[in-house]
TrEMBL record:
The keyword Transcription applies. Belongs to the sigma-70 factor family. ECF subfamily. This is Sigma-70 family RNA polymerase sigma factor. Residues 123-174 form the RNA polymerase sigma factor 70 region 4 type domain. GO terms for molecular function: DNA binding; sigma factor activity. One of its GO terms (biological process) is DNA-templated transcription initiation. Keywords: DNA-binding, Sigma factor, Transcription, Transcription regulation. Residues 22-92 form the RNA polymerase sigma-70 region domain. InterPro entries: RNA_pol_sigma-70-like (IPR039425), RNA_pol_sigma-70_dom (IPR014284), RNA_pol_sigma70_r2 (IPR007627), RNA_pol_sigma70_r4_t2 (IPR013249), RNA_pol_sigma_r2 (IPR013325), RNA_pol_sigma_r3/r4-like (IPR013324), WH-like_DNA-bd_sf (IPR036388). It comes from the Bacteria. It comes from Nocardioides anomalus.
Amino acid sequence: MGGADTLIAAARTGDEAAWAELYRRHAGRLELWLRWLPASDAAVSAEDVAAQAWLTAAGKVHDFSGSDDDFAGWLFGIARKHALNDYRRGVRRRTSPAELDSGAQPVFGVPGDDLSPIEGQDTVRRLLGHLSPREAEVVVCLDVVGLDVAATAEALGLRTTAVRVAHHRALTRLRRLMADDAPGEPTPEPQG
């Protein structure tokens, strides 16, 4: 085992500092990525799924055979499986969020009328809605979260070539949509 794999080796022994460093490197982008995945149950947050993934990773780190650099793809793959299970469970239960109280706290933590961050997210979500689910996941992994191609392939259970092809097709489609989305023209509706 080389020097590049010292974090994983230390994590296998239960070293808290190694786990803290792995968490520092991956927790933020893992939660960001999970927020972009489809959710069917408002009671399950991205933080909940991330916590499940970290617990699973801690329990299975002895089965992990990759390097420190491979850890992100492995962790994201675990999180994706947990998210899919939660999604399926939510569809079976058919839960829905409660209505928001109009006199409650600011929506999404945005005070007053400054909704521009939310509108920006809505625009990105609308554009991603024009892509196939695979293409949208690839774009979010690579361009929103910042995973590399190998980690994206591991996380999504794809080959690296399939990731590159899906990314190319997605960006081509998004460029065309943005070019067609000129002022004064109606915005195209997302596909099925």
